[in-house]
Records
---
Amino acid sequence: MSAPLAVMLVSGAQARLLAGLTLAAGGLAMGRETRVFVTGEALVVCLPDYHAAEDDRLAGLGLAGVAGLRDACLGMGATWLACDSALHAAGLAPEALLPGIEVGGIPALIEGGLTPAVF
C-alpha cells in the first residue's frame, strides 16, 4: 500500500490551486489516502459559491478547473480540513463550508508523520 498523501493549499491563486488539487486527485486515483488542508487565501475553494473565470476557459478546452477538481477530490474520499485559525481570521463559520469539509489544525494534517506538499 502506498503512503498517504498530504496537500496543503495556502494560496488563492488559480495556478497553485490547480496544481495542488491535481496532485490530490492523482493520488486518489491511484488509491492513496489523501488529506487536503486549506488555509489562508485558499479557503475560498471550500465555499459553495466558489467560481473562477479560468474554470470556464478550462471547461471549454475539456479540462477540469479548480471547482471540478475540488468536487472530484471530495467525491473520491479525500479528507478535507479547513484551518480553524484561518476560518476565525476570515470571520467564517464552519457551517459556511461545503459538506464534507472538516475543521482542524496542522496536527490533524501531519498525523502519522505526513509531510505536506504546499501550494
---
Amino acid sequence: MTGMEKASIFVSIAAFCDPFLRFTIESLFKQASVPETLVLGVVDQSAEPIGPWLAAQPFADQVRYLHIDPLHSRGVCWARHLAQTLYDDEAYFLQVDSHTWFAARCDDALRAGDRKIAGGFHRAQRHRLSEPAHRLAQVRPGQGVAVMSELRPCLSPGPGC
C-alpha cells in the first residue's frame, strides 16, 4: 500500500432514532478496501443505544461513540457538532447521513477525490446544489474534506445551532 492508501479517514455520523445506523456502519466497513484505516465518530440519539452491539464488533476500537437519549437532543446541527469533536487529526474527514449505503472501495474513491462514494440516494446529485454546497464541491483532492449531502441552515434556532 502507498501512503495515500493508508491515510486514515474519519467518518462523522449523527443519527436521530435511525434504524439504519447499524446498517450504515456495517456497509462502510464491508465496502472499504482498507477498513483498518477507518475511524468513526458516532452520535447515536436513540432510545435503544447501539453501544452494546458496537462493543461486540471486530472494529469496535475504531469507533468513538456517544449515546444521547433522544429526549435530550438539541437538533441535527448540535449532534453533528458533537460528532465532529470526536475527530482526532485523521487525514480525511467525511460526514455522512446515518442511513448511507456505501459503494465498493468507497475509501479509495475518497482518497482519490471521487465524490461518488455512496451507492444510495445522494441529495446533492439529485437536486441543484445550494451556494455553500456548491463551494464545497470545488474542494480539491488532498484537502481532506468531503461532504455527502447539501448544507442547509438550521431551522430550529437555539443553543444547538
---
Amino acid sequence: MGTFAIGTDAFVVSGILPAIAADLRVGLDAAGQVATAYALTYALGAPLLAALTVKLPREQTVTAALGLFALSNALCALAPLYVFLIAARVLAGTLLLTALAAFGASMRQSPSEAAAS
C-alpha cells in the first residue's frame, strides 16, 4: 500500500503539469519541480525520519501522519501560488515518509517489543 501511495502521489502530477503551469502562471519546467520536490524530500528524508520516529508510538504516528498527508494534499489542490504548492508537496512527502517509516519500524519489531510500545 505504501509503495502505491508513493508512486501515485509522485507521478500523478505528470499528466496535469500543463494545467499546473497555466494555473500558477509558471513555465512547464517549473511546474515539473512539483514532482521533484516531493520525490527529493522523500529520498533525502528517509534515513533521518526513520531514525527520528523509532521511539514514537507506531499506530498513532502512522494515523496522524496519514491524516496530515491527506490534509497536505488538499493544500496542494488549493495552493494559490507556486511557492505554496512546492511547500505543500514537500510537506506531503515528509508526512508520507513519516507514516511509512513508523509502519516499517513496527513491522521489524518482535512481538514483545510491539507489546512494550
